[in-house]
Amino acid sequence: MRLPVTVDEISAKWLTAALQFRYPGVEVTSLLCEDVLSGTSTKVRVLLEYNGTGEEFCLPARMIVKGGFEEHSPLMKDMYQNEMRFYRDVLPFIDMNAPRCFYAGTDPSGWQSIVVMEDLRASGVTFCHAQCSAGYDDVAARLAAMARYHAQTWDSPEFAEHGRYGWIGERFSGWSLDYMRRYLVPEVWRHYVELPRGAAVSRLLHDREWMEAALTQLGESHRGKPVCLIHGDTHLGNLYVTADGKPGFFDAQVSRAPWSLEVSYHICSALDIADRRKWERQLLAHYLTHLAANGVETPAFEAAWEDYRRDLVYGYFIFAINETRFQTEAVNTAYAARFGAAMLDHGTVSPAQ
User: Is residue 343 exposed (0-12), middle (13-18) or buried (19+ Cβ within 10 Å)?
Assistant: First the structure.
């Protein structure tokens, strides 16, 4: 179906057609755009009224319509489609606590993909934030949840070309790799390291040639390792805690990757630098214990520790080049500082420097 590409095109008629894929007979009789939250994707909070069928389905009075409604959106089409397919083609089959989805689709004639999901604010969740670092128990709970969904897809035959997850790419291939290369152009890289985030890290981490080589080596080091489905972007801004204390995940950018890419990314982005130094080994052991409890033959701790340390470079790169239209400079600086400190602590920076 054709999808709206501006906020003004989100109408009761369009949403009725979208919802009828899953809820036959429903009609949205009134729609009001209550709030617009801009970012990498745009989230539009809509206030809704339904016919009797909608009430019988107990559809909520507020939903979030998420898609590309910004000037930069056509450039992000692969990212939008990846998230849409997470809700449509992945979430029904794995054990991850994520927002309820009412519609997920893409427009094959254009660049737009849209997800219509529950308004988490209405269910009383607590949203996490980069500038409020997490405690040990919260990170441990999320690592246990990650171990559960990692185990469900561990070296799964469904990653084969015609399998259920055959469309899910590696982090260092396809559109994801093209996205990274865009920011390794010398003048583009220089722009980002001259921002406040660059002043928050060692000058050793400003070296573009080192960064490019480190990412290449990281991609090569992943070859031949067991892969699983990862959420792909588990920084605090994409996480929440339910009213009963369970960890929740949204804004997924799924890929197939070794477990260590997600675990190192989450631990380092979520914890205060001093807390990370105290807790990271214990938290890694906690993750491995839960992975084993879910039936996976886990690596020895020291081998896992090396993988964890090596993969820190990916998280640093993401926030070194993250655009301020996606996250504020304060958020990018907070994350870059955490990853930069971890890389110095663990010798992840090239010894040649």
Answer: buried
Contacts of 71 (CB under 8 A, 6+ apart): none
In eight-state DSSP terms, residue 89 is: I
Structure pTM? 0.93
Task: Indicate left, alpha or beta for 41 from its phi (over 0: left) and psi (-120 to 50: alpha).
Answer: beta
CA-angle at 267, arms to 81 and 170, nearest 5°: 35
- Taking residue 13's Cβ as centre, other Cβ atoms within 10 Å add up to 10
For 43-80, the pLDDT digits (tens) are: 999 999 999 999 999 999 999 999 999 888 888 898 89
Q: What is the CATH number that goes with domain 7-122?
A: 3.30.200.20
- Which residue bears the tokens 């067991």? 226
* Sequence spans of domains, the chain: 7-122, 126-345
Contacts (Cβ under 8 Å, ≥6 apart) of 36: 7, 42, 43, 44, 45, 69
Give the contacts of 328 (CB within 8 A, at least 6 positions apart).
none
* 126-345 CATH: 3.90.1200.10
Q: How far apart are CA 170 and CA 77, in angstroms?
A: 17
Helices (H), 119-230: 136-152, 174-182, 186-193, 196-199, 208-222
